[in-house]
C-alpha cells in the first residue's frame, strides 16, 4: 500500500535512502570500504568498448553512466535509445560489452536490441529491477537493482538504484582497467557510502520545492539545463514533469542554449538549472547569467557555495548538500522528482496513472 503517503510516487521517492542503501550493500564491503562486482563470464579488463541501450528514464541512467565510464574507466561508450538502436544495424566491435538497463526487464524495444547485440557477438549485461524477467533470462550476466516493486508510472527509485549500480560498475571497471589509483578508488567508494544518508538529508528539506512548484505550475513550457553528468538529470527532470503534470519541458545541455533554445526565453519560461559544485560549475553559472540577462526566471539547484554565488540572479534556489561531484547525479535526481510531483499536485493531475502511459511498454 501507499502507507502514509498520498501517492505511490511520493512513497517511492521517500523510499530512496533505503533502496539505494540496499542496492549499494550488494557491492559494498564495509570492512574494506571497497566496491566489487560478482564474477562475470567476461573479463572487465579486456572490454574494448561498451554499448548502452535503454528507453525513457532507464536511458537517462545509461547516459549518466557514459560520463562515469568514459571519465574514470577510460572506455568509449556508445549509447542509444532502444527504438533507434534496434533498427539501425550498428556495427559492433568484437569482444564488446552491451549493457541494457530496464526497470521491468520486459520493454519490447530494449529486449529486441539485446537480441540484436547478442547476434553481433557481444557479451550481454543487464541491469533490471525484476528478477526472472525476459532480459534477466537472456543475458550473460545480470546486476539487480533492489528498488522493490515500483507502482508509480513515473520512475523514481528505479532510476536512482540504476544509478547506484552503474556507479559501482564504473568504479569496478576503472579499477580492473587500472585507470584509477587506490586514492581515487577510495574517494569514489567513500562518496558512494554517503549517498543513502545524503539522500535522506535532501528529502528532509523538500519545503522549498513545494513553494517553487506553485510558480512552475503556471508555466506552459519549462527548460532544464545541466552540463556533464547533470545534463541527463536535466532531461530526466523534464521527462518527469511532462509525464505527470503535462507541462511541456525540455532538458538541454547548458552550453547548447546559445545554439537555439535561448530564443525561447522570456519571463514565462521557468529555467531549472542543475549545477553541482564540479568542474563545470563556472560554465553553467555563466550560461545561467546569459539566460537571466534575457529575462529568464531561473530556479537554481546547487550546493550552498553555488547558491550563494547565484542567488541574486535567480527567482528561487534549492540548496543541496556539498557532495563529491561523482555522486551528484544521484542526489540531484531527488529535487527534480519532487518538483515534478508537487507541480502535478498543484495541477491536480493523476500522479500515479498519468494519461496515455503504461508502466511497462511491451509493444514496439
Ligand atoms: O521498464 P523500463 O525501465 O525498460 O522502462 C523504460 C521506460 O518506459 C520508463 O523509464 C519510462 O520512461 C518511465 N515512465 C519514466 O518515468
UniProtKB/TrEMBL annotation:
Gene Ontology CC: one annotated term: cytosol
Catalytic residues as annotated in Swiss-Prot or TrEMBL: 359
Catalytically driven reaction(s): D-fructose 6-phosphate + L-glutamine = D-glucosamine 6-phosphate + L-glutamate
Example GO BP: fructose 6-phosphate metabolic process
Domain SIS: residue ranges: 40-179, 212-354
Highest taxon in the source lineage: Bacteria
Enzyme nomenclature, EC number: 2.6.1.16
GO MF annotation terms: carbohydrate derivative binding; glutamine-fructose-6-phosphate transaminase (isomerizing) activity
Location in or out of the cell: Cytoplasm
This protein's UniProt keywords: Aminotransferase, Cytoplasm, Glutamine amidotransferase, Repeat, Transferase
Main location: cytoplasm
Record function comment: Catalyzes the first step in hexosamine metabolism, converting fructose-6P into glucosamine-6P using glutamine as a nitrogen source.
Subunit structure: Homodimer.
Protein name: Glutamine--fructose-6-phosphate aminotransferase [isomerizing]
Underlying gene: glmS
Full-protein interval shown: 244 to 607 of 607
